[in-house]
Design a protein that fits this description.
Layout lengths: L3 E7 L3 H12 L8 E10 L6 H12 L4 E6 L1 E4 L2 E4 L3 E10 L3 E7 L7 H9 L4 E6 L6 H12 L2 E6 L8 E3 L1 E3 L3 E6 L5 E7 L1 E3 L4 E7 L2 E5 L2 E2 H9 L1 H4 L9 E6 L8 E4 L1 E5 L4 E4 L8 E7 L1 H18 L6 E7 L12 H10 L4 E6 L2 E4 L1 E3 L2 E7 L1
Parallel strand pairs: 2-3, 8-9, 23-24
Antiparallel strand pairs: 1-6, 2-6, 3-10, 4-5, 4-24, 7-12, 8-12, 9-25, 10-11, 13-27, 14-22, 15-16, 15-22, 16-17, 16-21, 18-19, 18-22, 20-21, 23-27, 25-26
Helix pairs in contact: 1-2, 7-8
């Protein structure tokens, strides 16, 4: 891989914003043995102009392959954009034939034969994907795609107050789309959590669907109250948005876990409902959102990624939860400035998601970083 070019801008009109990005990107010469891929993210203020933006980017650069998403917030190296029309574009030069666009998958279906054959021939094990949160089969689609690749996915659920648009060649919505990368595109990826466990793990000993009935053989709500402490237990309304359920991932060597919202409390029957279907025998623990812990974990993740790369990364993608960014790290683009501080001036784009995708799972309250190495 040769180089990446980054541009990002905000303004009032889609055309002037796009033209500013094009001017910053400069021209692209077609070199023998290489081809270009464009990664593009725009705030939902520009969602209605997405087709025109993609057309102008393609016409002016000569690049046909564009992948990305709309977001309520987007990001670039050291910058976050919210509540204003903004665009972030990263163009990379890749070995010829080393990527294929993934057209919309609206169900956990097999890849088209042509794409499946390419996956086999190029030993593709990695994909960047964007997903429509309205599709109830997204977790199954993600898992099926990871199985077909026998590999790893990164990405996020589109977030928008208007059109929930994704980009894969053109504008699409309703499922999962993105780009598959061959083995000759080296990447490194990692995930950072926003929450910290507050008590040891428990075993679910009785449940129904997403309702916890018993933990460790005792009423679930009794265990929950003990874990959160007397102050919160006396006023359970205060736990909303602060205390969450954490579902440890079996066989994870990093102590990874899925964070899920608390969706209901039944004080009379000592029941607790969470935003995930559960089974008896499964482990669970409770955690809290913590800005200081989130920053420490982000720095830990960045340090670990740096140690795994032999040379400075050429480019990057970052998918962060909408509950992070200014809602956790503060204004003035602090989350992206931490990444810039730890990694240096790496060309990077991404967006703030309704849910984050890493490996074969859908996460919440996390940041997923991928570096092109």
């Amino acid at each position: 891989m040769h180089s990446f070019a980054l541009a990002h801008a905000s303004g009032r009109q889609w055309k002037s914003i796009t033209e500013k990005c094009l001017a910053d990107l400069g021209g692209f010469e077609k070199r023998s043995g290489f081809e270009h891929l464009g990664l593009v993210y725009m705030t939902d203020n520009l969602a209605g102009d997405a087709e025109k933006i993609l057309a102008l980017l393609g016409d002016e650069t000569g690049i046909a392959s564009w992948v990305g998403s709309v977001g309520m917030g987007i990001c670039a190296t050291g910058h976050e954009y919210f509540d204003e029309p903004a665009l972030a574009v990263l163009v990379g030069e890749f070995p010829e034939g080393s990527f294929r666009l993934l057209e919309l998958q609206d169900g956990p279906n097999a890849l088209p034969p042509e794409l499946s054959n390419w996956v086999q021939s190029r030993q593709s094990r990695f994909a960047v994907v964007h997903a429509d949160p309205r599709n109830g089969e997204i977790p199954e689609i993600i898992e099926a795609l990871a199985d077909q690749l026998n590999g790893f996915l990164v990405g996020g659920l589109t977030s928008s107050r208007s059109e929930l648009s994704q980009f894969s060649g053109g504008v699409c919505s309703g499922g999962v789309s993105g780009v598959l990368l061959g083995e000759d595109v080296p990447v490194a990826t990692a995930l950072s959590q926003s929450c910290i466990p507050i008590a040891p793990r428990h075993q679910i000993t009785a449940c129904e669907d997403n309702v916890l009935i018993e933990l460790d053989g005792r009423p679930a709500l009794e265990i929950f109250k003990e874990d959160i402490g007397d102050l919160l237990a006396r006023d359970l309304q205060r736990v909303a948005g602060y205390i969450f359920a954490a579902l440890p991932i079996a066989h994870s060597d990093t102590g990874d876990y899925l964070v899920r919202n608390l969706t209901g409390i039944d004080v009379e029957r000592n029941l607790l409902a969470i935003g995930e279907m559960v089974e008896t025998g499964q482990s669970i623990q409770f955690c809290r959102r913590d800005a200081e812990a989130a920053e420490a974990d982000l720095v830990r993740m960045l340090s670990g990624l740096s140690k795994r790369t032999d040379a400075p990364p050429k480019g990057g993608l970052y998918f962060s939860c909408l509950a992070r960014g200014p809602n956790m790290f503060g204004d003035a683009s602090q989350e992206l400035k931490i990444i810039e501080r730890e990694l240096g001036d790496v060309p990077l784009v991404g967006f703030f998601c309704n849910g984050e995708i890493s490996h074969r799972r859908l996460y919440t309250y996390t940041g997923v970083l991928t570096l092109f190495t």
